[in-house]
Write a structure and sequence with these properties.
By secondary structure, the chain is mainly α. Helix content is 34%, strand content 0%. The longest helix is centred in the N-terminal third of the chain and has 16 residues. The mean pLDDT is 83.
Length: 210
């Protein structure tokens, strides 16, 4: 057989074997480039042979490419343990709000000196309005008068335009959103600190419209 013809046939067969179609991905010469290993933060793949068939790493024939356990993590997860006594800050550099739920007449004492870290810009007020309408309006009403639809079922919803509420600081409102007060439950786990401050900012705007 002609040497060139043999090379051509061999090349055609090789290329045909690489062709992907249907459920066949074709020949994979560097499978670790096709199948990235997903590191689950709260769980581990503890079987060292997992993914041995696609292993292209220089870690021995018995070590599978999907094995990703952090043997030095005592919790058997892939999350790195924070350094002792460290405190997580958010994207603004704010520390967690670590107060606690107290009686209504003690809230002002707890939040004394706290200021809203957000400026009273039109954008912040507009965002606070959207948050209020989606989270607060069904109870407190569009104007904050405590006449939302939920108030028909549960009398006693706070009228935010009342004199005692108008005197409240934004920090007081932030604290109440965080821990709840009276009929209102805690919203600290549902609403981020940034959004709580935005709502507090908008509530003060509502009160000025009284």
């Amino acid at each position: 057989m002609n040497k060139n013809l043999l090379i051509a046939i061999s090349g055609a067969v090789l290329l045909w074997g690489c062709t992907a179609h249907g459920d066949n991905p074709g020949r994979e010469y560097a499978p670790n480039m096709y199948h990235s290993v997903a590191y689950e933060p709260l769980s581990q793949i503890t079987d060292e042979s997992a993914g041995r068939w696609v292993n292209s790493l220089d870690n021995g024939p018995e070590r599978g490419e999907y094995f990703n356990s952090n043997k030095y993590n005592p919790n058997r997860t892939n999350i790195r343990i924070p350094a002792p006594n460290t405190v997580r800050r958010d994207k603004f550099g704010w520390l967690p709000y670590r107060s606690k739920k107290v009686a209504k007449d003690s809230i002002d004492l707890i939040v004394a000196g706290m200021k809203n870290p957000l400026d009273s810009t039109e954008a912040i007020i507009a965002q606070g309005k959207l948050l209020y309408e989606s989270i607060c309006q069904h109870c407190h009403g569009a104007g904050g008068a405590g006449d939302g639809k939920v108030a028909d079922k549960y009398p006693g919803v706070a009228n935010l335009t009342g004199d005692s509420y108008v005197a409240m600081s934004e920090a007081h409102i932030f604290h109440v959103i965080t821990y709840g007060a009276g009929l209102m439950g805690s919203h600290g786990s549902q609403v981020s600190p940034e959004d709580r401050w935005k709502i507090a900012k908008y509530v003060k705007v509502l009160q000025k419209k009284k």
